Amino acid sequence: MKYLKYALVLIGILIIGFLALGLIKPKATYACELVVDKPMTETWDVLQDPEKLPEWLPGFQRIEHNSGTPGTIGAVSTVYFDNNGETIAIKETITDIQPNEMMSMKYESDFMDMDYEIRTTSVDGKTKIHSITTAAGNGILSKSILALMGSSLKNQEETNLLNLKKAIEQNTKSYVQNEP
Length: 180
Fold this sequence. Notes:
By secondary structure, the chain is α+β, with helices and mostly antiparallel strands. The protein contains 4 helices and 7 strands. Strand 6 (about 110-125) and strand 7 form a beta hairpin. It is elongated, with a radius of gyration of 20 Å. The relative contact order is 0.22. The model has no long low-confidence stretch (mean pLDDT about 90).
């Protein structure tokens, strides 16, 4: 009986410690960067092309436009991903956009919300892509889990950007620039 008491106390301490993690570190912020061997306009075009999304976002299924004008501030879409056979829907809202330079979005799901920004900069005919993400759990349990998985989220973003780099550098699609 004595050992059972100690085990229960230990389990209680571990649970309290785990939940305290979410209070101590409720958000995860991380940045990633790489250089693509393509000009900035082509990089931006591939980045904005919905047909290219499956090439660089693992599990991407589809995107459904909900409101606003696609590709503009305030546009809302639902993005669907396959996660080990389960479909996950994430609400995406464009919060800022400067064509060929940057785009900011807010992603909302039951588990967590993310503020995501991606910037492109021309560097000697190549393009530097820089992303910054802030993720916050939507409850004490998700905040605690997020505190433990922050590095996994950054690793996933690095993988996504490497996939994007490959999609851009192997792109053969011609994008016509609509100039005034």
